[in-house]
TrEMBL record:
InterPro entries: Calcineurin-like_PHP, DNA_Repair-Maintenance_Comp, Metallo-depent_PP-like, Mre11_N, Pesterase_YhaO. Gene3D superfamilies: 3.60.21.10. GO terms for molecular function: exonuclease activity. Keywords: Exonuclease, Hydrolase, Nuclease. The keyword Hydrolase applies. It comes from Corallococcus praedator. This is DNA repair exonuclease. It comes from the Bacteria. Residues 4-198 form the Calcineurin-like phosphoesterase domain.
Length: 416
């Protein structure tokens, strides 16, 4: 038998976007974006005529969910209810069961899993389609491997709905930790996971698959690119997945090339062109981090005190007036002075010798190891660790080359 469902997670409804340095209509677009992403997920369910929707935790941004967020969720799930589409929900660390006041009900077609594992049969026209299993977080911190509670209960297609950290993803709190082997042991066909905001699929031993759809709306510069949900088509026990973007405000990291750019006017034009090329018009807004990259004659100008900040302020104002408006999250200076390193090397002298020594050291494993064993460097590494700063554990040849290059660039700046 054929059927389809949509898998989404980490809605984080009513994210305040406090880190967005803007105001007025642009801020309103950001604050509305999580609600619009939910509406578009429901649109996908209706368009695809799916049997059910899975929401894998963190529907709300905080434990004490706002009235606005709860009303929005009820309104959208009511649209599915009227279309005869079921919804299955588990709660995660941001929206544990302990934060539910119980003052707003959901449509009868919505199943919210409690703190104990449950298995629910999904039927259509009296015929059993599949099983959906789930368990919610009773409170914020759940350190137990909740996946160990799941188990196959029949021959029909089986789904596990869980908010968990598969494989110890370092970018997220290690709640409900599990491994691929743990999930495979449950014998389920599809694990609908939430918690990790980056889209990923993990093929499991035995033929199952664990999927993170990622969050449907990026909320900061570390959540760039398209965001959305996954449509799953099941036929003869085989799940075929399709990703569908639903985000309305998109985040980008973009480089602004400086090669050949000789004036601030030209730099403004290049930066604007880079943004316009990557920021599509069919969005409510965009947020970008721009990095000035490469060598160019403007490096000296950009190195002056306050220059980058002033350029950033000007670009932020210009981009906010674009259509759609663009938030400049920050402007980073990665520029380098115009230096012909090969000419410097060929010219000899102190700077040429510096480059040659760096190249020789880069290619000499023994010398590089000896450098890394230097007592002062070791002491520095230990001090950095005590301060909570990551220190290199092993020599990296490319860092020596970069150090030589930066030394020459600094000397070139001082003598120009």
């Amino acid at each position: 038998m054929r059927f389809s469902f949509v898998h989404a997670a980490d809605l984080h409804l009513d994210t305040p976007f406090r880190g967005v340095a803007t105001h007025g209509p642009l801020l309103e677009r950001f604050q509305q974006s999580t609600f619009l992403a939910l509406a578009r997920i429901v649109d996908v369910c209706l368009r695809e005529r799916v049997t059910f929707l899975l929401l894998a935790g963190d529907l709300f941004d905080v434990k004490d969910r706002s009235v606005r967020a709860r009303l929005a969720l009820r309104s959208e799930l009511a649209r599915l209810d009227r279309a005869g589409i079921q919804t299955f929900i588990v709660h995660g660390n941001h929206d544990p069961l302990s934060g539910d006041t119980g003052t707003l009900g959901l449509p009868e077609s919505v199943k919210v899993f409690g703190p104990d594992w449950e298995d629910v049969e999904v039927r259509r026209e009296g015929r059993r389609l599949c099983h959906v299993q789930g368990v919610s977080y009773p409170d914020v911190e759940v350190r137990e491997n909740l996946s160990a509670r799941f188990r196959r209960t029949g021959t029909h297609f089986s789904v596990g709905l869980l908010h968990a950290n598969l494989g110890g993803d370092a970018g997220h709190a290690n709640y409900a930790p599990c491994t691929a082997a743990d999930l495979a042991a449950g014998g389920l066909d599809y694990w609908a996971l939430g918690h990790v905001h980056t889209r990923a699929e993990h093929l499991l031993p035995g033929g199952g698959v664990a999927v993170y759809p990622g969050n449907p709306q990026g909320r900061h510069i570390h959540e760039t690119g398209e965001r959305g949900c996954v449509v799953v088509d099941v036929e003869d026990g085989v799940a075929r997945r399709r990703f569908v973007p639903v985000d309305r405000v998109r985040w980008h990291r973009l480089d602004v090339p400086l090669f050949g750019v000789g004036s601030l006017d030209a730099l403004q034009a290049v930066a604007t062109e880079v943004v316009e090329t990557r920021c599509a018009e069919d969005f409510d807004g965009h947020a970008v981090r721009l990095t000035l990259a490469g060598r160019g004659p403007l490096h000296r100008e950009l190195s002056r005190p306050g220059a980058r900040a002033q350029l950033e302020a000007d670009l932020r104002e210009r981009l906010s007036r674009a259509h759609p408006p663009v938030l400049l999250e920050s402007l980073r200076d990665g520029s380098r002075p115009e230096v012909d390193l090969e000419a410097v090397r060929a010219g000899g002298g102190f700077m040429g010798t510096l480059l040659e020594e760096a190249r020789a050291l880069e290619q000499d494993d023994a010398a590089l190891a000896a450098l890394w064993d230097d007592e002062e460097l070791t002491t520095l590494g230990q001090r950095l660790k005590r301060l909570g700063v990551d220190a290199l554990e092993a020599p990296r040849p490319q860092l020596v080359a970069q150090a030589g290059q930066r030394g020459v660039e600094q000397l070139h700046e001082e003598t120009s």
